[in-house]
What does this fold into?
Amino acid sequence: MIVIIRNAAWVVAWDADLGQHFYRQDVDVVFDGNRLVHIDPDYTGKADQIIDGSALCVMPGMVNVHTHLQSESLGRGLIEELGNPALYMTGILDEKSVFVTSGLTEQAGGATAQLAANAASTQNAIAELLKSGATTVVDLAVAYDGWLDLLAGTGIRAVAAPMYRDARWHVPTGHRLDYLWDIEKGRRDFATALEAVDAATNHPSGRLSAMIAPMQIDTCGIELLRDSLAAARQRRLKMTVHCSQHIPEFQEMVRRHGVTPVQWMHENGLLGPDTLLGHALFLDHHSLVQWWTRRDLDLLADTGTSVAHCPVVFSRYGQMMEDVGTYIRKGVNVAIGTDTEPQNMAEELRMASTLGRAAARSVRGVWLSELFHAATIGGANALGRDDLGRLAVGAKADLVMLDLDAPGMRPVRDPLRSFVFSAADRAVRHVFVDGRQVVKDGAVLTIDHKALSFSLQTSQDAFVRNAPYVDFRGRSADEISPPSFRIEGRN
It folds into this structure.
């Protein structure tokens, strides 16, 4: 099927020679099946569908390299203000985990309710991502029945990243982080993850691929990490792992090895172009860790290691990268992820801009052009793909059409600035993935988003009931995350 976007007012095109995006005006964008075939004025060939582009800005679909689809939507209204001051403000070690990563016990519905929650959260997150301009997503999840078919059914281009680890966190006192090791379970889960990886790469949809995903640098032994990287290289895939994501992790790795997490990875041959680090926030130069070396950023740049930057989730802990503009100008391949709810790539870029300048204490700390590059080409580079994140002949037909008449878009002088700084997802009108339309007039075609909201509510209610059974200290949901105001009339 040949689709023409006729006379697009603005196009965010790709200059391969200069390695950067640039604007074009009043051109035809044409794709045949799942490939772009023409980005120039006056296309004269045949067409099966013609879209009037006179009030549209056509841009490449963004690439989200780090999020947890099966869980994060379940935390809405619960997790936004969580964080443990006794663990350097992070909430992922105890408080947040109750609502988004702990499994449902029999008291809250057990395995059946858990699968329903996985499906509701995943579909809700993907609907939000598509409506905010993302066409590719890396889903870091624990493999579950029906996962790959669920991803494929949404129409997004998905990278399945099944997670596993040798140890789990335990916070029995509220201020002490312990590690409960089970190497045999880690090996079993690794084998299960590899089965899911191979199934994803061979999925009949043609839109699924995979990454090897040991969970965290502090919960995986060196043997598991080395075998993970070897498995990735054997399959010509990439490995991703959370690294330098909170201060207790930094301190634990220093206690074990005497060097920073990034330096330990380098000493063990784990850095390089095949590795994507989740967050890499607390490096040796960060003011909150007060470490004595200044090597980490150079190691990432020199080895070609990629970083998944997810500013929103850390902003809720009062933390930020120091600073994303310096990472970029040092030569680190920075990509963008959402990590948590809301799954909104436009809002993530806005926060990246705001915090990037605040951290640098400069209006020139980071530019939108650099962040949009990270959200498109940076993500594609991290995945080893030269056909994503760009509008160029031969690239995949993964593209987004912004409505220039949408609230926040006019006056139009620089449409990407209008999109990121003002309009956000309100401006996304149409989205195509692999040449197939998945969003039309702002509505997702592959997911019943409205009906899904009821399933999501039921699933969150189950996690609220589940809280005292999985919290390290037996607290209720209201004790962990009190509502903003008292609620009268609750039964």
Remarks:
- The CA atoms of residues 355 and 361 lie 9 Å apart.
